[in-house]
Structures are given as C-alpha cells and as structure tokens.
Write a structure and sequence with these properties.
272 residues, mainly beta, Thrombin, subunit H, six-stranded antiparallel β-barrel, 3 helices, disordered N terminus, TRYPSIN_SER, signal
Length: 272
Amino acid sequence: MLGRTLLVLALVAVCSASSIPHTVVHPKDLPIQHRSIQGRITNGNQASEGQVPYIVGVSLNANGNWWWCGGSIIGHSWILTAAHCTAEANEAILYYGATNYNQPSLRHTVGRENFIMYPDYRGLDQDISLIRTPHVDFYSLINKIELPSLDDRYNSYDNSWAQAAGWGAIYDGSNVVEDLRVVDLRVISVAECQAYYGTETASENTICVETPNGKATCQGDSGGPLVSLDGNKLIGVTSFVSDYGCQVGGPAGFTRVTKYLEWIKEETGIYY
C-alpha cells in the first residue's frame, strides 16, 4: 500500500574517544544500501494483541510519496510523534489497535492542518510533533499512554529501563507486512551519548539508549514510543541513530518528552 520505502535510523560501532563524532540520520532517511536490514525493531519480540495499545501506525503522504512512522496516543484526540515525520507531509492515515498494521481496529485520515510541529524544530533537535485527530474511544486495544508529570520534568531516567515499539517499513512493491515488535533498552546518560555523537546531535533535549546484541530501533520506527518500564510513562519519541546500520551497537536517540511538557500542555491541555 505504501508508495515508497520508509527509511529510518541506524547505529554504528563504537570507536575510540579521540575519533570524530559519528553522524546520524532520521529513521525515514537511511541510505538505500541498508535495505537488507528489513526495517523493524531489531532482535526484539513480537508484540501480543493489546500489549501496546497506545501505539499508532502513521502512514504519511506528500504528493503521492508515502513513508511510515509510529506515534503515541496521549489523549482521545491527540498523537505525539516526531517532527521529521510530519514536516513534509500533506496528510496522514492513522492505524489504531493493530499488531499487524494491515488489520487495525480503527483508521482515521487527517490533513496537514492537524499537524503541530514544535516551533523550534531544527532537523535533529526539538524533533517532536503533535497530530490532532478525531475523538477516539479507549478500550483494551486502543488506549493512551501517560506523559511524565510536570514535577518529573528534571528526571534524567539514566540507567532505567524502557520499552521501544514499532512496525518498520514496507519496501517498494513488497507484499510483506511487518508485525508490531517491542524491545527493552537501558537509558544512558546524555554525556555518554554526546561522547559518541557530539553535543550538537545529542543535546539536552535528547534521551539515548544503549543497543547491545543488535537490539535497536530501526527502519520505520521513527516517531514511535519509548516508555519507562518503571511507571509506564512516555519518555521518548524515536528520532535518530547513526547512518551506518541498525544492529552495530551505537546509541539510539529519542526526543526527551520531559523537555516539552509545557508545550504539550499549552497545545492540548494534557498534563499530569
């Protein structure tokens, strides 16, 4: 159904501390030579029905060109995703309550007027966006994920465990459908992420995870959720990895949700 390969982010092997910081890409911009990775959460587990009721598949279109991202339900009429997913899109088809995204419980189509990107979004930094949707009722297969509370805005989450989720891409002409997958990853400090990517890429607005044994976010996971296992809060939005490949061990970068709680409150009225 999708008209083009959805390209995501990747990870590089660790080099010495004296090396130049590794470069990164957005999930939908991974170079074509990495297509053999077959976009998905790499080395994770297939999600069971209703395990991740807050995730939404987001199929985006710009003049007939399609790409795939994820998003998180944060309210009856709101989805949180990455700004690089919505920046060039004219419309989005939203897939709710799915493990196999071709079999959603519900679909909605929304136009560009419903995309609210963070006003200071600049490529890698401030990579966060809202999508306003028709009202959606919650039940076992479709439900919201809570944001961290305003009192928790300075929590670094260093060394805590979190779960990432996503479907991955469908290649041009492919009939293969990726099922929803999940993986548990450990949050690392901003300093450790900066040592790998540099301070311009891994800013204070970033939350990073380590990716041991090839476990990582990969092609098609952009915009999807990173949820704390302790407290079950949405702490990250899938944003970047290195441009060398998904399974070689470098940190994966997410937009740090706690930095945007006031903005989300102002735009949606949602806060805790």
